[in-house]
TrEMBL record, chains A, B, C, D:
Residues 2-130 form the Gfo/Idh/MocA-like oxidoreductase N-terminal domain. The keyword GTP-binding does not apply. This is Oxidoreductase, Gfo/Idh/MocA family protein. It comes from the Bacteria. Keywords: Signal. InterPro entries: Gfo/Idh/MocA-like_OxRdtase_N, Gfo/Idh/MocA_oxidoreduct, GFO_IDH_MocA-like_dom, NAD(P)-bd_dom_sf.
Length: 387, 387, 387, 387
């Protein structure tokens, strides 16, 4: 693979590389690691990329790599730039004939995501999106249990993603904080765009349902912020199920508290990202079951997502690596013209669009005095829009 | 004490008696246990109440007891009847000069609660309300920590009370279920009236804040129900803090999941009723503290609410008994014309009114297409009301 | 009931009374609360005991109570004196024809316990012993699961009772500490006598097995102590199962950590006193089951030991009250000449003897350079004994 | 690096490679993956190793690699063969001038480990041993806390490593089980050799203490086994602290339950491998602290062992990768003739010897009727030894 962004000092690039490295199936062969040539040089050296495959801009990389023999050139590009570049880089890569694995969010606006869908389709290439949390084995297991009907009809979903790192004005100075709170760089939302969207994705991915209606309360908690740092969204799903989505970056004491509960007519399940190897299945009239990764029977997708025996915890990087491993398999299947296992596909363009729609719908709904709003997939009227 | 309701077979009456018995400070001396004379008889026998102090109606009980010498007659009455009788029994008792400890909810409507306030004031008697959960030692500790300023400015409260026992149509046949789902007996709300109101009370009690605005989503989940069996309420408190209140009776697998998280600018706390002897204090930049009942220093109100050394779990009945013990102390203070310790008072008429207002406000707000509604303390326009 | 010991200021007496009060079935009618006449007076007043039934010595109490008509006199005596008096008070009570409920340990020495057995048998009276922890509902459930064969053949038991309150020399000044570390008042052991014996009792009670062999390491941790403050005992049970019993009073940070794991050929179970309403059933090849008090089906003995619906935690006092309630039922059955339900009997003279034997066997084994020792029920050679 | 063993289908080889891959610092350049030439071929292909660097025996590999220019040849060898080959392969590698990273146990016997020490010293090369669990960040933190004196004087250590996968005769058929229970392939111990030794290593590593005396009970639980499948060891450490080490492979329901508690005069700590990102610090008189990876200040060694922000769980593979990363740094320091940070060194030859001594001492002590035995570092009399 090649990489755009992720030069020395970048956090998420390092995680993507660790994830890609883990299984020894993917090799980083080239990169346009930074807009800063010195950083490009140093990053390439650090990563053992030969000088002739370290590029200073992504367009050159795509052009030059495309000239290499198929066996040598990168097979896909991993995009780990700042958010506003995700779309143009993905567009350029796809148009140059490369598969794309993009960091989340897919684009800067919903309209870009809609355009991207056309571009993906025209290119005939594969597009993957690192909604990391869906890579966890027990998320696969949860989705399988719902699909099997073990929960009965889904009646209610409570999903939360809470953090505390933006709880005070003092927290705003950090590199991560400053761009996330800046509309010009982060887009229309901070909290919902950064983490709320993961919660929404998790709820839809596990339940197999889609949000159709929402009521949002995204007011920022810390004075003087232009973007939301906390929010709650009331939901309705397409089967009529109710939902509550809580998200916060001002919840002091929360680390990375992503958790979900899905209630059905027969049973419920509960999963927490911070203890990811456990899935709870609960009933009204018999003991709860603590389903543990590697203990007893599990879904095929779960088993394929595990690397160690029961009781050897797997974590965030392994979940991330699962997304990469799935994508690598999709590429092999693509090359072999075989269909991919639907339960083992990386999140893709559908999730890209629904994610951007979630962000824009919550922001729009939050500014409205009206309670309920349909979940739109286009033409969302945002607060600053001129009518 | 005397008791109205709670005859043989009644659940909550037995709990009230256990709570009153626990410390050996309160003696049950008379009762009007049932509207059924045979049950009265059997209950009195079971409880060792002499026949002449077992009454078949509460008015007679108040009249007859009032005639007894002060040292013999009951000092207060515990009301554990069905909800619609709480108000008339309390009114009669207060007007006969007896202190009242009432099961929750205080009344059937907000208007009755407002009337009751006048009656309490006129009577000069004490009025207590068993919002049981505030009797837990660690709830006292939590309130003390907030009052001390350890959390800084409160920014957000997430409170939940979820159960699963009304998750299906089949669950509706039970005695408890049938009256709770019947507007004629339960009032305007099932879930919010039964348990959501405890969550609201807990949030206000610990935080010392008051709800001033809300947005409610109380639609019933199970088909054919006239009253809510699940709901979420978005909140604003009088200091501007945001809140989310989740409550459900259809959350399969939940037992009695009352839990609260209060986030402040400096720290947050978390408490769960099902593990009541633990209180979490959490920070952004240092280890979380697991505060345990009986370990190290605690607030005076906490210490006074504990009966055993650290590690000997105390539970629901002890919390309930604390409410009774507090009320017994209030009566002693009253008799001695001494002021009562404000941190050690049973919930009273203020909580009665705010509780009934919470119920009616959420129901009214839920029926409105408008998002936010002020939290009113009178003249709430309910759906069925004729304008 | 009558009470010997437990005057004002005594800890365990108050717990016994709360336990006896809880269900309103047992009334305290007389007492010899203290060897101090002033304390007797004040205690009687505090407890609403008429002056003529407040006695200053236990012999008088037994004599005088025996003279009262059957309907008036106490039906049993609760013994909550310091340990060395348990035996003489029990003996006197039994010989006067009163049933006895004794605080633990039953006696000061194994020989006394053996004598006591004869006395109980001769008296024809009932004898109960407050091994409190066996009163927990989930301990009943655990025993039932083992008896049902759900675990298969028991292969290993790990039981622990750890506390930290005697971790330093400074802790020795307290009233509780000073007598427990004094051989003249505590007997041959501190840690094993006070709490290790509860662990042994719990293991035997749940498993239905008996210890037949042991290896002990009871050396005190804090310098200068004559009695053990920490110990580990390796065990063999009568079916060949292996065991490990850990007990400590110097385990800083432990509150009252009594927990047990019982492994069988088919499944294992785990219970922790500090979260007593949960019992774990675990398997090799399927999800663990979290069995919760009040959820789904349970053993009859479990159901009879519960007072509240699922999710309303019950604790130490309720467990203690269960022992009293069981004993009250045994007395009623005795009066009715009916057999008592064996799963609902309070611990008795058998547990008294095995408990004292456990203490003396571990002390003797600990002083021996030899690894294994048979578990003897008489004639144990203690270190100070003259041969 | 080069690898000996770990061909297609081998479990632990894959884990070593994932661990080595994770940070992109270590490249697998050659291997003698199997004694089976076909497996060698297929493994090399699977791992993208050129045919000329895929060797069919380790001696050839060492000879050939040594001939390559320094910049091309492997820098160290990772040994992931069956146990009995660890010693001869390590010896050959060291004598050929290659650093060695060996899977655990270091050798087949203590005598081999003692020999190996000489060989390491003579070679001037580095020797690392994958006692994986010491690679966890919170194990580093725990060791740092003890070294800082936060616990005061260590008084007691309870360490456990329990699994359930060998609980029944039926479990013996698997590939892993059959060799572990065979003295010819596993050595003198199954349970202690496989996992008990990790527990001992963890206790010594965190506490900085050394076992000096022990009493062991290793009898197998399942009939017909020649080697232990369960055992308990009573310990004394060189500062006088007491210890208990529990280990089992027949504990049905246990996954990989490695946990440790270290009690000191001032505080205690607790860590569990199955929730590895949490470390508990507990006190007698103030709230317990839940120390979480990435929250607040931590030791330098902890910080260097983390890859993600707080709340993104890291697990077993990351711990394993830390051992590799430490070893890679040791090699760089070696090449630069710089001293390595002592808190960041991979376990080495000292741990190799103490580990083998632990295994042989426990087996010897278990066969003795005498309780206590000194912990010997040579000349241990094993049961089968001819005197």
């Amino acid at each position: 693979m090649g990489m755009v962004g992720g030069g020395k000092g970048a956090f998420i690039g390092a995680i993507h590389r660790a994830a890609a490295n883990l299984d020894g199936e993917i090799e980083l062969v080239c990169g346009a690691f930074s807009s800063n040539p010195q950083n490009c040089l140093e990053s390439a050296e650090m990563l053992n990329i030969p000088a002739n495959r370290s590029y200073t801009d992504f367009n050159t990389m795509f052009t030059e790599e495309a000239k290499l023999p198929a066996a040598q050139r990168m097979q896909f590009v991993s995009i780990v730039t700042p958010n506003h570049l995700h779309y143009p880089v993905a567009k350029a890569a796809l148009e140059a004939g490369f598969h794309v694995m993009s960091d989340k969010p897919a684009t800067f606006t919903l309209n870009e995501a809609i355009d991207l869908k056309d571009i993906v389709e025209k290119s005939g290439c594969l597009y993957g999106l690192t909604h990391t949390y869906t890579g966890y084995p027990m998320v696969k297991e949860a989705a399988s249990r719902v699909a099997n009907g073990e929960l009965g009809e889904i009646t209610k979903i409570v999903v939360e993603y809470s953090q505390g790192w933006l709880a005070s004005k003092d927290d705003e100075d950090g590199k991560q904080a400053s761009w996330r709170l800046d509309p010009a760089r982060a887009g229309v939302s901070c909290c919902m765009g950064d983490i709320g969207v993961h919660a929404a994705n998790l709820a839809e991915t596990i339940s197999g349902l889609e949000i159709v209606k929402l009521c949002a309360d995204l007011e920022p908690v810390v004075d003087g912020r232009q973007l939301d740092d906390d929010g709650t969204v009331l939901l309705r799903f397409n089967n009529g199920a109710k939902g509550v989505l809580l998200s916060s970056q001002i919840a002091v004491g929360e680390e990375n508290n992503l958790n979900i509960r899905i209630y059905g007519s027969k049973a419920s399940l509960q999963w927490q990202q911070m203890e990811p190897n456990t899935l709870w299945l609960r009933f009204s009239d018999k003991p709860s079951q603590m389903i543990r990764a590697g203990v007893g029977e599990c879904a095929a997708a779960t088993a394929q997502s595990l690397r160690t025996p029961a009781g050897h915890p797997e974590g965030y990087i392994e979940a991330f690596a699962n997304i990469y491993r799935q994508f690598a398999q999709q590429i092999r299947d693509f090359d072999d013209a075989k269909p991919s296992d639907i339960t083992m596909q990386a999140p893709g363009i559908k999730e890209a669009i629904r994610g951007m729609a979630f962000i824009e719908n919550t922001v729009a709904a939050s500014h409205s005095p009206q309670k309920w709003h349909p979940f739109l997939l286009s033409n969302i009227q945002l607060p600053g829009d001129k009518v």
